[in-house]
């Protein structure tokens, strides 16, 4: 799989949403979700009781798009692969902190804690988006 340019990677990391595609029992779904990059991997989170997690747990094959731009200058990536649950406590803590910093300025922000609970909250699941292939564009 071809790797994105440094400028495209930086652009994608700064975007606020990833559009995640998955299959529920009867229909395809595409939902916007918050994400973070830890190391070189993309991560998302949700509640363990969410329909999204229940569907992905059954069928972890997913697709995702991160894109943006303006004035006829567009960049993005469209990927597909697997969503893998993160169970490592240290990595879960990194993801938790990264989400807090990206979306609230701090993992200690009360709104962040209201959404994600405490750092080791068992009601929150984090997933790594493991790419198998995809495409990139910058024009």
Describe this structure in words.
- There is one protein chain.
- This protein is of the alpha+beta class and 139 residues long.
- It has one domain: Electron Transport, Fmn-binding Protein, Chain A (Pnp Oxidase, Chain A), CATH 2.30.110.10.
- Helix content is 29%, strand content 43%.
- It has 4 helices and 7 strands; from the N terminus they run H-E-E-E-E-H-E-E-H-H-E.
- The chain has a 7-stranded antiparallel β-sheet with strand order 2-1-5-6-7-4-3, sandwiched between helices.
- A hairpin with a 2-residue loop joins strand 3 and strand 4.
- Helix 3 packs across helix 4.
Molecular shape: globular
CATH topology name: Pnp Oxidase, Chain A
Helix count equals: 4
**CATH architectural label:** Roll
State the domain count.
1
Which consecutive residue ranges, at least 5 long each, have pLDDT under 50? none
Major β-sheet annotation: 7 strands, antiparallel
Compact description:
The chain has 139 residues and is α+β, with helices and mostly antiparallel strands.
Keywords:
139 residues; 43% strand; 4 helices; Pnp Oxidase, Chain A; alpha+beta; 7-stranded antiparallel β-sheet; globular
